[in-house]
Amino acid sequence: MTSLTAVFSTVTAAFLASFVEVVEAFTIVLAVGVTQSWRPALMGRARRWRFSPPWSLRWDRCSA
In this predicted structure, what is the pLDDT of residue 12? Predict the structure, then answer.
């Protein structure tokens, strides 16, 4: 049987890793929006949604 501590630490690590990816994606969109313009940044974001398989979107839908 798996201990509760092992399960909790695994779930916490996975959640934090996903959160880091969301922050990274937001930072890239923000950097492109500030340095170029907002249209290419948001168009790139829309293309990512359109051409990515559904299982790769994860928490990205919440960060847009």
Answer: 94
